[in-house]
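Exercise 3.2. Students should predict the tertiary structure of the chain below and write it as structure tokens, then compare their answer with the key that follows.

Predict this chain's 3D structure.
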Amino acid sequence: MLSSLFPLAFFFLCFFSFSPLSLFLSDASAGVAHSLPTLSFEQGYTQLFGDGNLMLLRDGKRVHISLDKRTGAGFASQDLYLHGFFSASIKLPSDYAAGVVVAFYMSNGDVYAKTHDELDFEFLGNIRGREWRVQTNVYGNGSTAVGREERYDLWFDPTEDFHQYSILWNNERIIFYIDNTPIREIMRTGGIGGCFPSKPMTLYATIWDGSTWATSGGRYKVNYKYAPYVAEFEDLIIGGCAVNPMDHSSDCEKPDAAISDPLTVSLEQRALMDRFRRKHMTYNYCYDRQRYPIPPPECNMNQIEARLFYGQDGVKLGDRRGRRRRGQNKHSIVTQADAAF
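Answer key:
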């Protein structure tokens, strides 16, 4: 495990060696990403919405955000960042959670309304006995007409314990991680062009009602008799330089140091990523021929994989309803009472 984390640690050495953030390197250089300093809520975040639906515990080191019939909740970083490493350990609501969406993401839509960038982890709740799904998405320069969603199931129950979800972003590529395993890499290529996120963004965490689309295309809604739905966040890490959103200036001496030394993924980590994607990816926008008869230009399609394992709608064959939650009875079903409003 430690050897698999070395490339991540090496990035920090290159990225921060010329900035005040070099203090993050004490343990990361040894390959232990989770030992990077974590921030309390007061040190790095501010409440976005939700009034009393945000609760601080452990001196602000743990944050609970909840959804009830009245409102959801969310928080955001106090600053905008151009490139860096952003991470949180998250525990999701258990039991019946259809329609519930928990998001951990970066965006600048409040600053660049028509040309915003976005990097998303979205967690999609499910009916009792079915697992949460994780969705990643990328927008750049207002390219919302092209959704670049990928969706995955998980090899663990995300409601039983905390798991780490991370976004690493520099000028050359974006990598999404789950528990330090890379699951998706987006390269800055000619195909993606100006749709690669390139402007400072804020980090967000939210919980909200996505009944219209989140579970089976909106078939199952949030049932507020199970509220409040509580998502727990801890080990909050911001490894980047705060910048002025207007001129991209920064207090860091060389905030763009990563541009001259692009991150690479080791052969070991790439093998782990490929294995994850083969086993756990359940939807790929590049394979969605109904939505995109001509695939977006950045798609490097495996035609054999697309034909053998994915339907015309980009959903993995045999994965229409989603897997049952580990440990649940094989014959668990959704009752009318569960699905009722």
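Discussion points: The CA atoms of residues 7 and 266 lie 6 Å apart. The radius of gyration is 20 Å.
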